[in-house]
Structure formats: C-alpha cells, structure tokens
Amino acid sequence: MAKQIHGIIWLLVGIVVTVIALWVGKLLLFVILGVACIAFGGYKVLVQYMTKPKESKTDKFHEQMREEQRIKYCSRCGAPGHIKSNFCNRCGSKV
Ligand SMILES: [Zn+2]
C-alpha cells in the first residue's frame, strides 16, 4: 500500500515539474526530469497494480496450504490435531 502511494507521488511530482517547466519555458532539464519522474512513478504504479493481486492470491493460497499441512489426524481415533503436537487431543495416544 505504502509503495503504491510512493509511485503515485512520483507520478504527481513528475506531472507538476513538467507542467511548471513547460509553463516557465526554457527548462528542458526539468522537463526531462519531470518526464522521468512520470515514467518512474507510472512504472511503479503499473508494477504494483500488475503484481499485487497476483501476489496476495498466491500468498493466501500458500497460507491455506501451510495451514492444512499443519493438521494431522490421529491414527487411533481420527481426531485432527496440530502437526507439532505429539499426542492426540481426544484419546491421548501418541500421534
Ligand atoms: Zn486420538
């Protein structure tokens, strides 16, 4: 979220710098700087937009997978228990 805002700030700063430079005139360096800022900010926003939903989806999926892998079932009574626990919660037998 913070990175996305950062990209938008770059974009806005670039636009402001470019507009001022063009308005004042004879500030080619600032125009280039502004365009560079727009390009950088736009790229950042685009990358964030392209990658973020994908990332969060896979993260959620992996989290779910990990969560499922943590659960094991008792061989004696079939009660689900945490993977780290050595004894069954229901019957107390060693898992
Ligand atoms: Zn059990």
Question: Could you give a short description of this structure?
Answer:
This protein is mainly alpha-helical. It has one domain (2-82). It has helices at residues 2-24, 28-69; strands at 71-73, 80-82.
Top keywords for this entry?
mainly alpha; 6% strand; binds zinc ion
Parts with pLDDT < 50 across at least 5 consecutive residues: none
**Counting H and I runs of at least 4 residues, what is the number of helices?**
2
**What integer value in Å does the Rg equal?**
27 Å
Record field, number of beta strands? 2
Envelope shape: rod-shaped
The major sheet is characterized as:
2 strands, antiparallel
- Which sequence of strands runs across the widest sheet? 1-2
Q: What is the total domain count?
A: 1
Work out the strand percent. Answer: 5-15%
Hetero groups in this structure are: zinc ion
CA distance, first residue to last residue: 43 Å
The ordered H/E elements are HHEE
List the quaternary state of the chains. single chain
Please estimate the helix content: 55-70%
Mean pLDDT score, rounded?
82
Structural class category: mainly alpha
